[in-house]
Amino acid sequence: MTKEELILDCRYYNGEEEVPDSLPEGMAIFWDYERVWTGWVLDGCDRLQKNIDYYTKEYDLPNLLPDDDGTPLGLKALLFARYDYWNGFMGGSKDEYAQSFKAWYLEHYVARARTHRQQLSQRQAGDAQT
Question: Which residue of 79, 92, 104, 107 sits 20 to 30 Å from the alpha carbon of 30, by its own alpha carbon?
Answer without folding.
Answer: 92
